Each structure stands twice: as structure tokens, then as C-alpha cells.
Amino acid sequence: MKYIIVGLGSFGSSLGIALTSQGHEVVAIDSSMRKVESYKEVISHTICMDATDEYTVNGLPIIDTDIVIVAIGEDQGANVMATALFKTLKAKRLISRSINPLHEKVLQAIGVDDIFHPEQESAKRWAKRLSLRYFVDSFSLTDSFSIVEISIPDALIGKTVAALQLEDKFNIKLLSTMRYEHYKDSFGRAQSRPSIQGLAEPEQVLQDSDVLVVYGANKHINQFLRSVGVKVQ
User: pTM of the prediction?
Assistant: First the structure.
């Protein structure tokens, strides 16, 4: 996948390094030449430019980029301007950093696809979330074991939980399924929140709107994903 990361602060640089190490193409931009030079060996491409300048930003490969992440944190105004500019230039998926509750409402009004809070979330966790098409979220119990939320792959729709044989074939356990309820926020924009469906039962038939909550060793979860056609690193 191809990413554009705007801002090479602590979070943006860590995210860029993690995604690059996973084999993705990353274009990281920052107005500081010092930061650009610092990370040019560990991030696919680093460019020194002003992300609020429409002329220069328009020269980026936005149409060919899967996800744009605005990680500017020091300057709230620059964050909003850069986010609005990428939205105007029709980024396929736009994610931006929230600095405070008011700023988050502004980002929602702009129409970003997702918002992150670096003070609460790690760059490694977001790298995992952005790398997998079906990945929703995860909670690492140790370096080797996780609880992972996965949007149901097409190959599993209509099958029962028992038919998957997750414990026998992959040594992982389906704890539950979730579905997302949709609602309007204070700006009238569409939002969603998770609804737990309860403990997974053997006879339960999986639906196209299900999110699978799976527990197991990371390597076993990856084996399961590969078996249903999901590309993982």
C-alpha cells in the first residue's frame, strides 16, 4: 500500500518507519529539512515542503495514494489547513491528528475518515491497523499474543462459527462478534460505534457486517488471515 504522512514529529516518524519496515511505500513530508534528512534512510521517501501550500501539495501522488495521515501536532492551524487541503484534493482515505476536543470537532466538520490521539495510541498499533485491509483494532496482551478485531473476509460470510474450526486448524479462538451501529454526530455527519453480539456460539452464522474478535498468538492469527486470502506482512 502507499501512504502519505504529513509531519515527522515523534508519532509521524514512528508510523512512517513502522510502515516502511512492513514493506509499504511511504511518502513523508515535513517543513523541517533537519527532520527530513534524519529519516531519509528509514522511510521510503522524505520531502521537505509546506503541507499548507496548495501548489506544492498538488504535486504529490495523491490520486495513487491509499491513505493520507496528517500527523502535525505542534501547530493546530497548520494541521487544520493541511487536512482541509488534502480533503479538497480528494484523498481516498484521510486520517488526522486531534490535539484537543474542539480541534476534533473541526476535523469532523472537514470530513476526515478517522481521527487519532497520539497521546493515547501507539504508532505501532496504528501501523498494524493501517497495514491490513480487514484489520479494525487490536489489544496486545504480550509481544506474541493479541486480541484482534477483524472485518469479516468475504470467504467467511454465511459460514457457521463451528465450520471455521479455528481452534483445531489455527489454534486461535473466536471470542465474539461485533457490529457497528451508525448515527449522526453534532455536525450531522455519519459516525459509528461498536455493538457486541455476545459470546460466539458454534451454530452462529457469520454475516457480512460482522467484525470478528479473535484471540491467539500473532503468528497463528496471521496464518488464519492468509488462509482466507488476506495479505499480511
Answer: 0.59
